[in-house]
Amino acid sequence: MRVNGKKLPGWFVAVEILILFLLFLMGDAIVRLLHLPVPPALLGMGILFFLLATGIVQPHRLEVSSRFFVRHLVLLLLPAIVGVVRLGSVLEKEGWKLGFILVISTLAVLLSTAGIARLTKKEGDE
Amino acid sequence: MSVGQTLSLLVLTLLSYWAGCRLHRCVPHVLMSPVFTSTLLVIGALYLTHTDYQTYQVANQPLSWLLGPAQVAMALPLFKGWTLLKKHVSSVLTVVFAGTSSGVLTAALAGKLLHLSSETTLSLIPKSATTPIAMVTSQSLGGTPELTAIFAVLTGIIGVAAGPVFLRWMGVQSRLLKGLALGTAGQMLGAARASKWGDAAAAMGIVGMSLTAMLIGLVTPYLLPILL
Q: Is residue A119 domain-shared with residue A97, that is, in the same domain?
């Protein structure tokens, strides 16, 4: 694996993932201790962002794992996706309605985000 | 469950994913992406070996544990696009707020109009949030978290499969806006897809995803009783 032309050993990814996991656990612990209404993963993301912004963590340190996760997110979600099989009885009764609602509602989100953005003339800013 | 069975079910996921990626490289079409093909492979294998989903899910828990770190890692692309983001902060907030509320409202309204059971409707409402957040919110609304998890993932899949085409049809040119819209509509999968449009779009996708998750997790439990 190569980052900025420098060759990195294979175990590097494991170390990166371990660091990310610790940050996630840290977020989780803080949420539990302080009873915050914030999702643990988002807080972990916030902590990492803070560490990056203050320069404590260099961005290139996490380059490999970050790219790995983005590329192979489907792999991590696969067990949850296979959960469709459990929808059996619900699908039989309400299947087409559910599919219809999911599609319509998702298109509505896309339509309103893009539509509102156009009204506030964000379009063309690049 | 034996260690052998646990391992082989985990390997099943990895192999199916690998095969799905291979297939997608040969036939680069949205409908041939691993989201569909790998899923079918796993379901087929479970069916042939008479394995129930519960067993499969327990064996594959390690993959789900990685979802936490995966979301934390998104701080990096967010950091890269930060200067750009600061420039657009108010319009980004407006846009994501509009998108998220229309998602929640259409789901609630359509569920009522089509006479879904209230439990199913409540499970549909948090679907645009990232999977873990959607599940927690579903619980506090009175829905079924497991059902919501599947709806959330399906929403992501629909967003990624239909989003780019739909946005092109709408005539959206800006890559920033496309990224933001996909992240808002399609949670983690949408944000990951946005990174194909470059660093700036990736950051926008993550902002859309995070803000949506926060809005749904923090606001819907209080707001919904008023609406319904």
A: yes
Q: Is residue A16 part of a domain?
A: yes
Looking at the structure of chain A, the number of domains it has is 2
Same domain, A44 and A95: no
Residues A120 and A61 grouped into a single domain: no
Residue A76 lies inside a defined structural domain of this protein: no
Residue B141 confidence (pLDDT): 83
- For A23-27, which contacts have Cβ atoms below 8 Å and span 24 or more sequence positions? A23/A47, A23/A48, A23/B69, A23/B72, A24/B68, A24/B69, A24/B71, A24/B72, A27/B72
Cβ distance A42 to B77 less than 8 Å, yes or no, reads no
Q: Residue A35 phi/psi, 5° resolution?
A: 50, 45
B152 close to B144: Cβ distance less than 8 angstroms: no
Last residue of a domain, one of A46, A71, A96: A71
The model's pLDDT over B57-102, given as tens digits with 9 standing for 90+, comes to: 899 988 888 888 888 888 888 888 788 778 888 888 889 999 999 9
Q: In chain B, what are the domain boundaries?
A: 3-65, 75-227
Closest CA to B16 of B56, B69, B71: B56
Taking a C-beta distance cutoff of 8 angstroms, is the pair B228, B108 a contact? yes
Write out the residue range of the structural domain in which residue A27 sits. 1-71
Does one domain contain both A64 and A42?
yes
Residues 134-193 of B with CB under 8 A from A: 136, 146-147, 149-151, 153-159, 162-163, 166-167, 170, 172-177, 180-182, 184-186, 188-189, 192
Mean pLDDT of chain B: 87
pLDDT tens sequence across B88-137? 888 888 899 999 999 999 998 998 898 888 888 888 999 998 887 888 78
